């Protein structure tokens, strides 16, 4: 989308309500002042006008790097201009929360009331009591996911706590509904104790058909997910790990086709061995990659070394078959693929030049990638980032709606590696050979085909691996 000035709309926006004395200042002077401070005027609404005064709402778009206070202070200094009010469009959208609950069946009379509540509801209760599996067909459980966080690792904001995490979890619930018609509810727990979180989720699990763990810090997130997967009979999915991994692998499938390389013949370097880095490596190993080298702040992870992070010990034992030592510089030599889930600016042009021919670079650190695409556009065959303002965004929104839609529809007991691989292959399949190019290896999050393809692939994988408790009608003749 473009503004009236032709600039792409990114970053923040605000609405300034101004009272302008037309005898003292021209409206064009106001626009110029805002523009000089980095504001991009995208809409003008006249609220009230007289012979000598006008009241207008100015919608101003502002890049993330620009301080909104600077524009506000400039407006305040303009003679003949009174700042009446400032409204942030994002804050306005969040007033009262972004989601609500609605009835599927209206209650219009006493008969309706008796059926949905007492006394007739007792018969439904007893049916479930006699056969607990009926909770899936007779309650919201069949289509409801809990989006659970403790607020300890929210976006790039860090440990901001459960109250501040709610807007993100509400947004996640919106995406579930919009993309896949899954009813999701945000649950932010006021505890960062691993045992308390596990116990809390287990206690609320009867109401839900799946659990989406979100923005819980590493390494606690590993234990929480693994324990819940063992102790619950519904899918538990840590999206920060596995959603990123699925979409990354989908992008890599497409990228390898462009450079005509086989997945079992390539060398991959992963920078940043946190939750996402470990999950990405796991899915790549399951897909057939033979050589992965992990690098973190201690350098290359090597077997036989002992690390404080227990997951690093697992990682070292299952990767780096050549036992290469050193830093990112040494790891990159001869690598076919770089996967960055670490720190902005950590990858240099010189490092990319030491990689194998036709290098593939996934620089996914946010908001600053490990290297900006324009620095290596001429030497990298494919470049992807985690940002929406560059081509090939690796965005887990492509994954979680469809993967849960499939898991719920077949009442899967878990989400296994085969289902994740199937989801990635579905995403990659959206782009045809004719469409695929270095700037288009991954579909848009708004592509209407994605959720259905993922859903179908995931159900097939669940049936094939024996974890589906229900076979949807269209899959009953599956070989």
Topology at a glance:
Blueprint lengths: L11 E10 L5 H10 L2 E11 L3 E10 L5 H10 L3 E8 H6 L15 H7 L4 H10 L4 H4 L5 E6 L11 H20 L2 E6 L5 H11 L5 E4 L6 H12 L4 E3 H21 L7 E5 L3 H13 L3 E6 L2 E2 L9 H9 L9 H5 L4 E4 L8 H5 L6 E4 L9 H4 L5 E4 L14 H10 L7 H13 L20 H15 L15
Helix pairs in contact: 7-16, 8-9, 10-11, 10-17, 16-18, 17-18
Protein model, in words:
This protein has 479 residues and is an alpha/beta fold. The protein contains 18 helices and 14 strands. The strands form three sheets. Strands 11-10-9-12-13-14 form a six-stranded mixed β-sheet. Strands 2-3-1-4 form a four-stranded antiparallel β-sheet. Helix 10 (239-259) packs across helix 17 and helix 17 (417-429) packs antiparallel against helix 18 (450-464). The longest helix has 21 residues, at 239-259. The relative contact order is 0.08.
Rg (CA only): 26 Å
Strand arrangement, major sheet: 11-10-9-12-13-14
Mean pLDDT: 92
How many strands, which pairing sense, and closed or not: the largest β-sheet?
A: 6 strands, mixed
Distance between the termini: 46 Å
Q: Proportion of β residues?
A: 15-25%
User: Which runs of at least 5 residues are low in confidence (pLDDT < 50)?
Assistant: 1-10
Form type: globular
Instruction: Tell me the helix content.
Output: 25-40%
Count of alpha/pi helices: 18
Category from helices, strands and their pairing: alpha/beta
- Strand elements, count: 14
